[in-house]
């Protein structure tokens, strides 16, 4: 602990850069995946190729992608941000699609009967109802991203991952412990905030039974069940 | 020269295909490490997941483990155990196995738990014992999700075994770590390309497995959903 206190400035600095490297990709991911997900649901033929693409992104080891990008983006933050964005997309696009598809048919029919046009129906009715599943995917993407950033340290851009390689070289476990615990805590805080966001965004879910939520709960396990269909 | 060009030049040079540092040997090592870690993880997680799903117990523990496994940075875990065990076999086997367990456990548990209760009730009504219900009804229906769990684990372990080269493990990660250490970008690029191909091959194998193992009726159902 005395080590952590003595090095608090460096820790704080790397913590901020760690969060930046981890969260920017998730932000890009959500901004892109909502329109793409809507497209996949509206134009069904676009879904199979995009699903295949996301399952390829999911499989690519982040380290390999960092190395590919060094040649194009150099040793900048983008070298880490771009692969993590692809990873986020591979989790988030299937979640958005799953979420939109989970909306029950009677709800759509009611919206149509109330005079909602098809785009307005998607944005005003289906998207809000998809929030629990989208946030389940967002939790997976965020937690994974926070932990994956540290791999970037192998090319010198890894936020708190710096303490892993430094601790290994100096044979000094304390610094590895501290960084490990900090990363796990950051991931759990982010996860908790997303749970709060879900509660706040979906007030109608509050009274529902645990069994109803199981569907959503299960999506939280693997981001999305659709990820498994290819 | 672009990455692909460099990687391609490195791959086709005959030098990479022979000797203790050649691609066949490194690939073999990589597959052995992955296989061992995955094998141990399956022996632990598959029965546990089946039992917990069948008994409908332990959901909270499974979710917590899954979250924790995802939050734990692989490089940190590898380096920490390496420093603590002073470089024994445990230094790579423990982290690799540990990271492989949650996806298998979670998906097996989920797969069994998600089986329609009407089906298990019918099976019980036909006089099946609990064990028969598990192995003849719940497990076959859970196969798509079990395979998904195995695939996520396999991908995870292949990637982590690469990173484990940093603490001295053999395998394909050696090209990357050694190449970075000696500023040989062509070796790094070639190594990265081989690893990408391996990851895609793993993904392909599981698509094939899914096609071979998943019962035909079930396949049609899951495609629609």
Sequence-ordered SSE layout with sheet pairings:
The complex is a heterodimer of chains A (230) and B (225).
Chain A (H helix, E strand, L loop, with lengths): L1 H5 L1 H35 L4 H13 L2 H12 L4 H24 L3 H9 L4 H31 L13 H9 L2 H29 L8 H13 L8
Helix pairs in contact in A: 2-5, 2-7, 3-5, 4-5, 5-7, 6-7, 7-9, 7-10, 8-9
Chain B lengths: L2 H10 L10 H33 L3 H13 L2 H12 L4 H24 L3 H9 L4 H34 L9 H9 L3 H29 L2 H9 L1
Helix pairs in contact in B: 1-9, 2-5, 2-7, 3-5, 4-5, 5-7, 6-7, 7-9, 8-9
Polypeptide structure, described:
The complex is a heterodimer of chains A (230) and B (225). By secondary structure, chain A is mainly alpha-helical. Chain A is built from ten helices and no strands. Chain A has a single domain, classed as MetI-like fold. Chain A has helices at 2-6, 8-42, 47-59, 62-73, 78-101, 105-113, 118-148, 162-170, 173-201, 210-222. Chain B has a domain at 26-173: Orthogonal Bundle (MetI-like fold). The relative contact order of chain B is 0.14. The interface between A and B is large, with 55 and 57 residues.
Radius of gyration of chain B: 21 Å
Spans of chain B of at least 5 consecutive residues whose pLDDT stays below 50 are none
Query: So how many helices of chain A?
Result: 10
Q: Report the major sheet of chain A.
A: none
What share of the residues of chain A does DSSP label as strand, in percent? under 5%
Total DSSP E strands of chain B: 0
Total helices of chain B: the number is 10
CATH class of one domain in chain B: Mainly Alpha
What is the N-to-C succession of helices and strands of chain A? Answer: HHHHHHHHHH
Structural class of chain B: mainly alpha
Number of strands of chain A: 0
Q: Taking Cα atoms only, what radius of gyration of chain A do you get, to the nearest Å? A: 20 Å
Instruction: Tell me the overall shape of chain A.
Output: elongated
How much helix is in the residues of chain B?
Answer: over 70%
Largest sheet of chain B: none
As residue ranges, the low-confidence spans of chain A are: 220-230
The rounded distance between the terminal residues' Cα atoms of chain A is 47 Å
Helical content of chain A stands at over 70%
- Oligomer state equals heterodimer
Q: Find the CATH superfamily of chain A.
A: MetI-like
CATH class of chain A: Mainly Alpha
């Amino acid at each position: 602990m005395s080590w952590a206190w003595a090095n608090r400035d460096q820790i704080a600095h790397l913590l901020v850069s760690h969060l930046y490297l981890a969260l920017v990709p998730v932000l890009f991911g959500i901004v892109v995946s909502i329109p793409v997900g809507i497209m996949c649901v509206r134009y069904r033929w676009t879904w199979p190729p995009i699903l295949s693409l996301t399952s390829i992104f999911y499989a690519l080891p982040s380290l390999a992608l960092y190395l590919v990008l060094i040649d194009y983006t150099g040793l900048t933050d983008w070298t880490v941000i771009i692969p993590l964005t692809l990873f986020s997309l591979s989790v988030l696009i299937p979640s958005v699609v799953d979420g939109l598809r989970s909306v029950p048919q009677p709800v759509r029919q009611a919206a149509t009967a109330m005079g909602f046009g098809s785009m307005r129906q998607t944005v005003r009715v289906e998207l809000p109802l998809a929030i629990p599943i989208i946030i389940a995917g967002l939790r997976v993407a965020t937690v994974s991203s926070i932990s994956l950033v540290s791999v970037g340290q192998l090319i010198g851009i890894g936020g708190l991952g710096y303490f892993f390689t430094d601790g290994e070289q100096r044979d000094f476990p304390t610094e590895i412990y501290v960084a490990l615990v900090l990363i796990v805590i950051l991931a759990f805080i982010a996860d908790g905030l997303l749970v709060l966001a879900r509660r706040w965004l979906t007030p109608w879910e509050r009274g529902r039974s645990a069994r109803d939520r199981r569907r959503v709960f299960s999506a939280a396990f693997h981001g999305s069940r659709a990820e498994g269909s290819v | 020269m672009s990455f692909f060009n460099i990687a391609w030049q490195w791959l086709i040079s005959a030098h990479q295909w022979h000797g203790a540092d050649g691609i066949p040997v490194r690939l073999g090592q990589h597959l052995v490490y992955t296989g061992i870690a995955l094998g141990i993880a399956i022996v632990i997680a598959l029965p546990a997941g089946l039992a917990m799903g069948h008994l409908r117990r332990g959901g909270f523990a499974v979710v917590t483990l899954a979250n924790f496994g995802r939050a734990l940075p692989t490089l940190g875990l590898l380096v920490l155990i390496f420093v603590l065990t002073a470089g024994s076999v445990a230094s790579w086997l423990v982290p690799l196995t540990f990271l492989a367990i949650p996806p298998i456990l979670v998906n097996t548990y989920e797969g069994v738990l998600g089986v329609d209760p009407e089906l298990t009730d019918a099976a019980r009504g036909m006089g099946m014992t609990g064990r028969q219900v598990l192995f003849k009804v719940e497990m076959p229906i859970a196969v798509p999700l079990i395979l998904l769990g195995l695939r996520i684990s396999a991908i995870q372990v292949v990637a982590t075994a690469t990173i484990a080269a940093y603490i001295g493990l053999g395998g394909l990660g050696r090209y990357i770590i050694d190449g970075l250490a000696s500023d040989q970008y062509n070796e790094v690029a070639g190594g990265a390309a081989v690893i990408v191909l391996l990851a895609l091959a793993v993904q392909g194998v599981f698509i094939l497995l899914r096609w071979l193992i998943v019962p035909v009726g079930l396949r049609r159902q899951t495609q629609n959903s």
